[in-house]
Protein 1
Amino acid sequence: MPEENNQEFTVKPIGFVESNYRDFDDVPHGHGDDKKGWNEESCRIVLLPEHAGKLQGLEGFSHIIVLFWVHKSKDWRMPRGHKLPKGVKVFGTRMPRRPNPIGMSVVRLSGACPKTGAIDVVGLDCLNGTPVLDIKPYLVFCDCYPDATIPEWVRKKRAGHHHHHHAERNHETEQEAAGGKA
């Protein structure tokens, strides 16, 4: 293996998540009687003081991409009754246990203050204290792929999951409004 393939990188957080979730089991998933899923929960990202002033330019964006370090990934357990199809491994999932526990979420931006470094978002399923690695604006013209597909096993898994149906309906509605096929 070439020497450059064995590189290690130092990653420093730019801030931390403040949320009501203290444990993976605290994160609602919108299943069954729980009508309020993680995609409707508000939380705050607080940037370190040296990064607070770097928020200028986010005004007007409805959504941002948040990259974070899943710092408690070793504490995560597969939810009871949830099984992956035979042959599906970590890179075919979004499970928190990964070789590099980097998470990514597209969330609704509800406010940002360059003076304090506080960013209020909706839909971030992070535990309290999660280190934030980066924030990027969500750009519809290059971050959205309406023709993207998913495998059949994922389609079957999501059949009973409230938050996925809600997201799909919103996506279809957005496509119809833009003149696309739903």
Protein 2
Amino acid sequence: MKLDIKIPESLNDLTLLQWQKISKVASIKNVTELDIGIKILEVVYGIPKDYIDKMHSKDITNLIAEYQKAIDNKPEFKSKFKLNDVLYGFIPNLDEITAGELIDIDSYSKGVDSNHKLMSILYRPIIKQSGTDYEVEKYAGANGNLKNMSLGIALAAQGFFLTLGNELIQSIVASLRVENPQLLNKALRKSGVGISQLTHLQGATFLDMMKS
């Protein structure tokens, strides 16, 4: 059996879905390094399990080392990217994030399985642009297509959003308290969290998200 194996050179050669699949295995209690390595070979290199069983240990070690080198690269933030002929843009005005979107960000930041849902809030199809300015679609829930976005772009976006910290979140919550307290309370009741929890997103769930 002849395999066409492509070696990833950077995070941009990997997809968010591949990362999710590997992370899911890595999170299993008592998982072994061999189990994780086999999943890397299957997901990243497309090598079938029955073929892996016949591979030399040196070849397996080399392929896993190449994967490790790729994910050790620092991700680069991009405000725009194209996926399946659709141009996506990072939300141009973070100050306009709604209470509902904040609640979803909190929820989707708690596990790697939901990372594409988080990306659906941060990146949306561009519907209008003029020079460097652009407008994105309104948030309409999870976009499954973003599972196939570049892992490098996804990780960089998470890091960029993390650096905004509590100041932005607390500013938005404070504004909603004054301008539209009913909307804020409705969103909080729906999610089952309180304002004190919402204003500590950066200190807890966002940090956990980056660690995962």
